[in-house]
Amino acid sequence: MLIRFVVSNFLSFKDETVFNMIADTSLKTHKNHVYPVHKKVSVLRGAAIYGANAAGKSNLIKAIEALTTMIERGKVAPGIDHQKFRLDTEYTSKPISFEIELEIEGKIYRYGLDVHQGRVVEEWLLESGITKADKLIFERKMDSEGKVKIQFAKEFVKTQKERYLVELMESQVILKYDELIISMEKFGNELSISILTSFKQKASDCILVIFPYTKFQELLRYIQHQTVQEAEAFDNLISSLDLGIDRVILKNTPYSQYYYEDISNLKENIITELDAGKPVYIPESEGGVMLSRVGSEYSVMSPIFSSKGKFDKEVHFVHGELSDGTKRLLDFIPLIDLLLSANITIFIDEIDQSIHPVLLKIFIEKLMSNDNLKGQLIFTTHESNLLDMDIFRQDEVWFAEKNRESGASQFYSLVEFKPRYDLDIRKGYLNGRFGAIPFTGDLERLKWGDSNSSDLIK
After folding, report:
1. What pLDDT is attached to residue 125?
2. For residue 15, how many other CB atoms are within 10 A of its CB?
3. Mean pLDDT in residue range 263-279
């Protein structure tokens, strides 16, 4: 579960900017939206982020993705220095800084990373104490001369061998300047390996980022593993969304008929997995296919979308024939299963892209009201119809706004305005009461409607 994320000097974020999912205990609405992760801390199940174009909404998600990708790969991302805040030249000589706070198996951890010139300047992992002092797991610092100092908790460095390993890390013999300690799975004793490996895996697995251009491509695997009852429920959901689809069918086609080529054209590692009886998923623009081997034959499994035509005659469509909005909603359906089954945090940028406002509102309303939800859904949007306190709590609504002087993004929650419970939040937002709307300037100067087109450039 995500508790807090902090970023500075990255894209449109200049100084420290905080986004958090901590529930405001003074609010009494939507109590089922609150997950207790500690006796002193509860987090929210959702957040909707609003703001004008270029306010920094997407950049928050890009920052989350940048950090989790580096954790997963164990290295500083190449070229990340080009993503520093560029509207103030002083910040080119300052590090990019990230910190993320997560609940993992009943404990709360804070992991932070400062990078500059492709190097790790600082890195730390703490177990948050909440009501007492934080417990250090490790801390790494590089001074102005490039010398590295690393400190581990005492229980991780007990033997001479472990102390020697730390010295080798400090001298960059077994830890390069762009590598992360969090990914050094072979360091130290079993306790340190367990904590580092667990945090890395959980931080990578429990956060999923989806951009407008992302093809989630889990629909095929999702359908393939359904029980009869789940398949029936899925078809009912598809029909209820009024997408012009009644059900989804999995079609098997011999490889040579689907691709019109010999299996030997595939990569050697794919053929090896197929020959070992393992299905292989191949992402494609048409929604992806699953390759498998049955006996001596190779086949391609692909989704076919069924609709009833005249006289109830079944008509089939392939993924590429569907509308963009239908494809996007089909991408979302497997996400529902993830949110219902796992403690995962899913970020979706521009959730309203290509989806009708009424359909999107129904979709979000049903999801947020589901008592069985286990994960967190965080999304950016311009869709004001979702600004409904029957769907969200006040602390689940966030705004992004650019500072007009510095050009830097700043984030704040609706709860900071302490609006009345009976206030029309949507109307207040569109009227500029909470900020985070476009600055339109003097549109009269555009002279729209003037027959003399040359006036438009005066």
Report:
1. 92
2. 15
3. 83
